[in-house]
Amino acid sequence: MASSQDESSGIDRRNFLRGVTLTGAAALTAPVVPAAAQTTADNTAANRTPPLPNLQAETQPPTADPVVQTSSGGDFMAEVLNALGIEYLAMNCASSFRGLHEAVLNHTNNKPEILTCPHEEIATSMAQGYAKIEGKPMGVICHGTVGLQHATMALYNSWCDRVPVYAMIGNIVEADKRAPGAEWVHSAIDPAALVRDFVKWDDQPASLQHFAESAVRAHKISLTPPMGPVLLSLDAELQENPIRDRNALRIPKITNVIPPVADGRGLEEAARMLAAAEHPVIVVDRMARSSAGMQALVELAETLQCAVVDQVGRLNFPSRHPLNQTWRRAAVLGQADVILAIEMNDLWGTLNFFADRIERTSHPFYKNNTKIITLGSRDLYMKANYQDFGRFNDVDLAIAGDGESSLPLLTERVKAFARSGRKSVFADRGKTLAQAHSATLEQLKTQATIGWDASPITTARLCAELYAQIKNDDWSLVGSAIRVNWPLQLWNFDKTYRWNGSSGGAGIGYNAPASAGAALANKKHGRLTVALQGDGDLMFVPSTLWTAAHHKIPILYVVHNNRAYHQEYMYLQAMAARHQRGLDKAHVGTTITNPNVDYATVAKGFGVHGEGPVTDPRELAGALSRALAVVRRGEPALVDVVTDPR
Amino acid sequence: MNTLMKLAAVALLAGVVGTSWSEEAPKGDAASGQRIYMAAGCFTCHGRVGQGGNFNFATPSLAHTVWPVEALRAFLRVGLNDMPAFSKEVLTDQQVADLHAFLQSLPGSRSPADFKLLNQ
After folding, report:
1. Residue-range domains of chain A with CATH
2. Model ipTM?
3. Interface membership of B38 toward A (CB under 8 Å)
4. Mutation for A interface: B117, B119, B120, most A CBs within 10 A
5. What is the pLDDT of residues A2-35, one digit of tens each?
6. Chain A residue numbers touching B49 (CB-CB < 8 A)
7. CA distance A203 to A213
8. What digits encode the pLDDT tens for the residues A165-181?
9. Distance between CA A156 and CA A386 in Å, rounded?
10. In terms of residue numbers, what domain contains B48?
11. pTM value?
């Protein structure tokens, strides 16, 4: 957005600056007195007549205004972004970063590739979803102040989700260089203050060399566990003005931190406790960022033949592994004598029962004498204001270290302890757990049969129908509005990229764009990407569909269209019951009806293949099949399925 | 003890302690019960066909319930976990009886072995 003031205030334009390459430079003239300055403060009627023209200003030759330049700071910035391996730059175009925008297009030939997003929340959420699949940050750039304000919730989600996002904003630091109007309201002294509570690091470089060093530092910090978003504020002059001496600038060596492996003594003690336990249990949340992480956890669990409860902040453990006891969390924690908690954020919330009643009550699932071990990077970096760290929980042994990197060493130590006659005990334990796993899944499948042919369609039927059509592909579920329960219960999640976790901060408007970002990452790996898309979430960011169409991002959105912000509907109904003032109004303010939204038509309007609304379960397979054909040829598609609530 | 069993135990206990078993339960009307089930929002947690779902906890299936009406009524009056209590002020004994009749009329689960899509 260029200010209208830009074109009327050419004399004092901020580009009239040092280091330019002049063509046809003319002699400077004496300063011109603006016409407005000739008026006086005397506001008498006589003096309210229009001022005379400033003849001097209107007749003299133009000032020496350099008209071209052969380089820009943005060129160097673009080179740095490429050196960092940043593949994409998601943005909603804005004048405060026009310098870098142009440099990316014309100096580095659209590398990083620009992703056109209709909202900064979409751009940032795309980066979050992308990073969880690709393992590295996507670049995002936002307008100074207002653009960052749009992006804040998505940055918060990324922070809570421990995801590296490489965010940048434009700013005009020097007040005397800002054009009147928009450039003032889009500038700030400390723009990062808005988000400093939920980014790991930020800077506002004062020179290009400063930028290079801070850019590499920011990249390194974002990727060091616990990972998180970072922010660089880029001065517009720094982006736009010519480079004085390119040879004087250097891009520092890019060396990412090797994630810290936990201390050997701590792992030794943990291994001793686990090997001696009768009922050890592993709980895990955001641990596996690669297949190595999942393999390491499988090896540890199989060595111990112990229960694993996957909180699925990432897909840490195969869903059909017989030791997977995720759906028996309370039962296995109640039996546990040692609990190993890996890369947990909300440890208390995982290990304790909590009732949302008039008098809120809680108690641990585990016994008084149960020993708790934590392993993870969460203790290494935390901030105060936003309370995403959850309630404090008693721990007997707290080990700082990256979970994925530390597990092989822990398993090695456990094997050493397990040699002394414990293997038969372990084997018996594993058999018992395998039987429980099988029985639980059978029970869940039995529940899935209820309402099989009902309309609105049950979420169990929806998930079963979808899996039938993707199971032979290399599929990846990257978003879920139904708490991923039925997919995890009915599908075979055997690779980390089968599921990439949820929003982190529970900020609505995550699912659609983050799924698109994840699909973009999956595209080059040839994976088939699907997302179970909440209707309420899509209402926040529907124009994500346009970005998916524009950039030909292959993804199937299956809209779980329960026509409500359903969780809030449930809460309202609980409040109404508690207050005994009637039960029939909880739909007001919580439902998305009258009119019902036709999401297939919405999709078509954005250039996306749309199917539905599907209300008859017998028509679901056909709709999914047609939509998946579109996705398999490289484009997005959407199927609107009218569903029962959960 | 799974969640459903806990629920049943609490309901039965509450039924014995809080409500007289000998109290004559009104006869329920399934059609009326269906209207109440939707209007009172029972479906929001338990599904339109009683298939269950999830809230902060798993919300149990109610289709083809085996609970006696007294147990259902007793349970509704106290709730459990995040399940709110429904007093007589918002759900009369007659309405509970109607709800019970509706839940009993719903088809229950079947064997998953009969469903190819549940065995993939």
Report:
1. 73-248 (3.40.50.970), 264-435 (3.40.50.1220), 449-642 (3.40.50.970)
2. 0.88
3. no
4. B117
5. 333 333 333 333 443 333 443 333 333 334 444 4
6. 450-451, 454, 458, 644
7. 10
8. 999 999 999 999 999 99
9. 9
10. 3-18+28-109
11. 0.90
